[in-house]
Amino acid sequence: MTSQEIRQKFLDYFKSKGHLIVPSAPIVLKDDPTLMFSNSGMTQFKDFFLGYKTPTAPRIADTQKCLRVSGKHNDLDDVGRDTYHHTMFEMLGNWSFGDYFKKDAIAFAWELLTEVYGIPKENLYVTIFEGDASENLERDQDAYDFWKSHISEDRIINGNKKDNFWEMGESGPCGPCSEIHVDLRTPEEKAKVSGLELVNNDHPQVVEVWNLVFMEFNRKADKSLEKLPQQHVDTGMGFERLCMALQGKSSNYDTDVFTPLIAKVEELSGKKYTGILEDEKDIAIRVVVDHIRAVSFAIADGQLPSNGGAGYVIRRILRRGISYSYRFLDMKEPFLFELVAVLKNQMGPFFPELEKQGKLVTEVIKSEEESFLKTIENGLIRVEKLIQQTIESNSKVLPSEEVFELYDTYGFPDDLTRIIAEEKGLTIDEAGFNAEMEKQKLRSKADSAQKVYDWVTLEERDENFVGYDQIEAETYITRYRKVENKDGEFYQVVLSNSPFYPEGGGQVGDKGVLENAVESFEVLETKKENGLIISLINGLPKDAGALFYAKVNATERKNSQANHSVTHLLHEALREVLGTHVEQKGSYVGPDYLRFDFSHFNKMTEEELALVEEKVNAKIKESIALQEFRNIPIQEAIDKGAMALFGEKYGDSVRMIQFGSSKELCGGTHVKNTIEIGHFKITSESSAAAGIRRIEAISGDKSDEYFKGLEKQITELSQLLKSKDVVRSIEKLIEENASLKTEIEAFKKEKAKGEIGDWKNAYEQKGDKQLLVKKTSLDAGSVKDIVFQLKKEIPTSVTIILSNADDKPMITVGVSDDLASSYQAGAIVKDLAKEIQGGGGGNPGFATAGGKNLDGLENAYQKALNI
């Protein structure tokens, strides 16, 4: 049975049981402040469990792309070292929202595994929650009784809270769970040791394949448990492990989920995969084929590699794959990008984002490979220099600070530093390195540390967003909670009528004021979490249940929504000018400026930028009225021509924003008419990543300020130049400046000629050799010319010139060719440069060094006289 057939059978089975089959949510989470990535199948249904949204159906099934590389669920370090851990994996799941519970969930799982997939019953074991006295949780007797009708009691195992009580995170929906384990060992191995002894003991052939979670509690911030309003079922079956079981393999990597990728790596690297766990080459191949899946899906879902947040995680995964292939597969050129085509052929039919975004994914990965391989090359030079310094200091241990700097600042893999050091008979200061790493983690943790208390619920009221229609509203606080972070103590509030737009869709959250006749609080930010619009205020009202007046900062909102509306016009104009391949890949919309990332593989020309600006401003001047379609079916919006952004998760009902021919699905705030935007001005165009261009621009008040600033500058220039024709006056100045430069260069050459004659006569005889040590104020170019001439004309000579031109210390050393075997210009300049707190280098015949300490030139001069 192929992996495609296994996946389809799962979905077909649950469809036959009345489940709605839904597509996978994006692997990258954009509107959940608690998670970067979908790390389990239940992530996209979290709001259903918490009661914030109504499920689209009481029974749902899907296969969800998941990523576990950070936070509580982190499998990165295990990947490649065993047969079954992965960064990106598929989670097959069936869900019940207040419908069926333990009995049916257990029956469905057993029937599918044993009758549909045909797994022998004697190979299966199940676990149930044994209870936990510290939390007043009893043994899950119901699950035990239901399992008894399917499997012998000696195969039902009690499991502790760690293994059999599933929690989403520090807080949130949770409940007891029942795991299903499969024993894939040979009959001979089973005869020696019972599978009962190996369940949940990390045996590579006795693995958990499915987890049935019975959601019935909510974990609060104070760690207490409360009953959920309804009982739910949340199951997750590891697709890769299931394929291993059904295809009779002992490793996930031996299934057809991975073998096509492995075959391509073998072809490109010339290395043969043997499947040996401890073999570094095989570990590297497993790392590469795992990581290329994670990175490809993340990029396809809209997350580009970067230096922060989710982008940093993706870059780290990719660089780990490049590092392993560089060290153990001898791949010194980019090649991972060539695996994308294989992955696309394999999974594209079920995950169309890979098909549609294939070119972009390939180009981004190739660019990242090229960049990181250069980092490795530059790092190797730094490592060699560090090793040389360590040897010269008669030490056998590379200092931890420098090794950590290589890793942290330059991105050079620390394990590669270890390998190179060991080849030279050296080690690194492991304890010191780990201490530096811990310091960094503590710094990072301190920066992001935040203690969030439980919600305090006040009077039950509806919680509505009214910000599309008004920026001021009478309102009540429906709930609040305290938040403590490095900046102090704050309170998050949810309002019955909130005019504050929550950060989302690239647009910043609103700020403003929450006040009444008695007190006033500043609204510092507004975000959305689990369906709730949450505003952060700088204190707790004395009477939190009183009537308040919520007021959005009108100026910032006006400018933000002007910038948001103009991004829609910009998107349309870019597609008209550059082509329909242009797609939005990210945006930032604030009151001061907008940033718009889009797919395009070439730098835009000045003509293209001017045409885009012209088209956008023409639309603004047309005074196009906003047409807003709230809560329309998504298919109706698509039929109307609305553009949906790839990597976004849309519900069944959406909001469509239309300005003439521009139609997009969007939840942000917008101007009522394009004329309110004022004027649109592109301020920069640059590369955001391979295949991604970035435009930054302004509109509204900021555009007015920009042109007023230009007008002021022109007026001031006109006054300085005493001319209204500023352009012609500047051209004249440039011509005069060029003429003066020519004269100065001629003067320098004349001065240098005069110096040469004096310097030739200033050499001091040192035995059978000649030494010149001279101070000068000549510039570096003139000194270089003179030194090259002198070292040719004066035999058996060393020439040392110390310059203070432009108040910057500079040392230049020349060694005549006949002394090159016994004197090294680079070594001499390196020694002298210590006196000016600098460094430099060159070749045996010529070297230079610059520094910071001008006063040190005198010490360098005295030191040079003694050579």
Characterise this structure.
Strand 27 and strand 28 (662-665) form a beta hairpin. Helix 3 runs parallel beside helix 4. The protein has five domains: 3-256, 2-Layer Sandwich (BirA Bifunctional Protein, domain 2); 371-444, no CATH class; 451-552, Elongation Factor Tu (Ef-tu), domain 3 (Beta Barrel), CATH 2.40.30.130; 557-707, Threonyl-trna Synthetase, Chain A, domain 2 (Threonyl-tRNA Synthetase, Chain A, domain 2, 2-Layer Sandwich), CATH 3.30.980; 755-865, Roll (Diaminopimelate Epimerase, Chain A, domain 1). By secondary structure, the protein is of the alpha+beta class. It is built from 24 helices and 36 strands. It is found in: Cytoplasm. This is Alanine--tRNA ligase. Its EC number is 6.1.1.7.
In short:
The chain is an alpha+beta fold. The protein contains 24 helices and 36 strands.
Protein traits:
867 residues, alpha+beta, BirA Bifunctional Protein, domain 2, Elongation Factor Tu (Ef-tu), domain 3, 5 domains, nine-stranded mixed sheet, six-stranded antiparallel β-barrel, 24 helices, 36 strands, globular
By DSSP, the count of extended strands is 36
The global form is globular
Question: Count of DSSP helices?
Answer: 24
End-to-end Cα distance, whole Å, is: 80 Å
- Report the average pLDDT across residues: 90
Strand content: 25-35%
Largest sheet: 9 strands, mixed
Residue ranges: pLDDT <50 for 5 or more in a row? Answer: none
The percent range for helix content is 25-40%
Domain unit count:
5
Top-tier CATH class of the largest domain? Alpha Beta
Rg over alpha carbons: 34 Å
Q: CATH superfamily membership of the largest domain, which one?
A: Bira Bifunctional Protein, Domain 2
Find the CATH topology of the largest domain: BirA Bifunctional Protein, domain 2
CATH architecture of the largest domain: 2-Layer Sandwich
SS-based class:
alpha+beta
Subcellular location: Cytoplasm
Binding site for Zn(2+): 564, 568, 666, 670
Pfam families: DHHA1, tRNA-synt_2c, tRNA_SAD
Cofactor: Zn(2+)
